[in-house]
Amino acid sequence: MEPVSEAMASLSPFASNPLQTKDDVKNFLVALLDPLAAHTSPGGARIHLGHTATHYDEIAAQLEGFSRPIWGLASLLAGGAEYSGTHRWVSGLANGCDPSHPEFWGEMRDKDQRMVECSALGFAIAVAGKQLWDPLSAEQKTNVENWLSSMNNKAMPDTNWLWFRVFANLGLSRAGSAKFDAARMKADLDHLDTFYIGDGWSRDGPEGVVQLDYYSSSFAIQYSQLIYSKLMNEEDPVRCEEYRKRARFFAVDFVRYFDSEGRGIPFGRSLTYRFAMSSFWGALAFADVELPAPLTWGVVKGIQLRNLRYWTKQPGAYYIDGTLTIGFCYPNHNMTEAYNSPGSPYWCCESFIPLSLPETHPFWAAKEEPYPTSLLPKPVVALKHPLHIATNLGNHFYILSSGQQCSYPVKQSAAKYGKLAYSSAFGYSVPVGNLTLEELAGDSTLALSDDDGETWKCRRDTREARFEGPGEGWLRSMWYPWKGVEVETWLVPPTTDAPLWHLRIHRIKTGRPLLSAEGAWANYAQRQDGRHLDPVPEASEEFGTVGEAGTARAASRAGVSGIVDLSSQTPRTGVALRTDANSNLIFARAILPTLRGEHVTGDGNIWLVSAVFGLPSVEEAEGAPKGWITEWEKRPRIPAEIAAFMQ
């Protein structure tokens, strides 16, 4: 029986919503919008949801609280529905843009956070102008025009931000405003198109930037391209068709980042936007894209709705009043960025864009279909542009990763981009400190120390990443933690002979002694009664941990994760490491199977070979399926080409 404390903690204010119909999705959105009334300023222009700070000013943070929910509200209104609180946003838009009003948002400066929020406002005016623009007086419309258009002569970051100015001008265009700057919009679009690298993928920046995360898809670039392609098809047909073409290519890759239960694979930054991860699928419907095989509208609908369902069931994603927390599956400021205000998570409202579509649209008319595992030709696929290998063998959906890094300072960027693998079921962890391995929380990471364990370094800046080998092959890359130390890594995906394992092979060239700690997937750290996991024999399928020479494992209600040392030199010790609380994005209390080693300088070459095991529990189940120990007893083989190189 679930402990009372656990049962109380598992209550989500939205879990009872089945999210099967358009009305269900509408009800979810309304349930998110209603609690904001109590946090809205008298003039409606600011929504204050908490007291944590950002690198930008407090007024801009409260503007975020106002603007981001409008992604959902505008879609709801565009679909013909009504919302009783719409007047709050109409008043807020008028007052926030009025320089004489106490709630004025302030003049825009170069690279101002206010520019980001113009994206939602421009979209709202474009698709729901009747409800949000027409009620404004002539003077109020002039104020809005002046405020939105003021960004046209300001400097902007050379990133996806340029889309926000495109949307500001798009809104002005749809409002018939003389402030619409067609030349500025075209110049921004032309430059954004230089980010495109083929097969549907775009970088989040110019040549040299290696970021292809959710900003390249659901958060910004692909999402924005699809909206533009729908709204500007008559004015800019060639570009709009190109954007739809890109989306068709991209969708076939992007489906690999979601699992059969609706979870997206956590990777990269801004994950507090949560179900914005799946907004691309709704945008496909909004843009009426002709779907590429094997996708159908039933499949697309299923991916989108299962993702929303997953998030309705995460109690830690919401405060008791129904407002969103900052974090992922629970409030967690360790994983956030300096630009995450209490209103930031409402970027998730992008995913309500299907509400703009009629019930007769194929997205709503289609019967929801399961994840298309049987339709995808390969369970293991090399995705060349993001430098990922995606797999769903054994019903474990994850990516092996090399070659991405953030092009500017972002908190915990080594965890967000530099880990060796990312899983939809086990998530990833972020450090809460750097003086102990418990603080480091180095899941899917090779951590090294050259000061006897005082501090640790993990892969952050990956170099020379490439695919090698037959078939889908493997990933090979370099990392240089200190001068005089080189780490070369091969990441080998699972095979049908050992479907729950992947291989990591490291060659370390060093002129100094090092300590190493290599983590498997982090796992939920508690027993059924809520107490911490206890040690069990390696042959046992009971919930518990294994930590001995060359082996570490943890089994809990979330499934099984483990790591085995296959090195022929420098044997390592296994330990089930209880990481510090609030380090993993999914499990607030996590345990990390880890191999620890001591390495002296001999000829300067140290070879480490690790087999990593992962078997998530299935939806609503307690633990991995019975008989999993048979899979655990298997061991993957080193590919012959790599083995020959090692020799």
Automatic annotation (TrEMBL):
Top-level taxon of the source organism: Eukaryota
Sequence ranges assigned to domain DUF2264 in this UniProt record: 21-371, 380-643
TM region(s), chain numbering: none
InterPro entries per the UniProt record, alphabetical: DUF2264_C, DUF2264_N, UCP014753
Record protein name field: DUF2264 domain-containing protein
Organism expressing this protein natively: Mycena chlorophos (Agaric fungus)
